[in-house]
Specification:
It contains seven helices and no strands. The chain is an all-alpha fold and 123 residues long. Helix 2 packs parallel to helix 4. The radius of gyration is 14 Å and the shape is globular.
Length: 123
């Protein structure tokens, strides 16, 4: 549906729904679409944000992002990358916090407003 609709609101809703499955394999598969060259980078950002923003999918999204951070950074707009820690800022377990740090701390200084967003989200 996301690929076929011309209505942006419908497209956004469909993209936001893709990573919302509780089955981690389906969430990871939806995240793989972020790297699909047939998908507009804006749409990939929508999928990534939806997965990082929700507690049930955040751990899968962080693990996926850690494995794919270079490819994702090359594909999605640089000026947006400083917001990624804020999208994942709802971490609440020690294992999620460790994954959050592993993904974002090494990159924070290399993106605009990255250090501030990282510290704010971590707090």
């Amino acid at each position: 549906m996301a690929k076929s609709t011309r209505e942006q609101n419908e497209r956004d809703h469909a993209l936001q729904a893709l990573p919302q499955f509780r089955d981690s394999a389906l969430t990871a598969r939806a995240l793989d679409a972020v790297l699909d060259p047939a998908l507009h980078p804006r749409d990939g950002s929508t999928i990534l944000r939806a997965a990082l923003d929700r507690e049930p999918t955040r751990a899968v999204a962080l693990a996926w992002l850690e494995r794919n951070i270079g490819a994702v950074a090359a594909r999605l707009p640089r000026e947006q990358q400083g917001f990624w820690p804020l999208w994942a800022g709802g971490v609440c377990t020690s294992s999620e916090r460790a994954a959050f740090v592993a993904v974002f701390e090494p990159r924070a200084a290399s993106v605009d407003a990255g250090v501030r967003a990282y510290r704010q989200a971590l707090e």
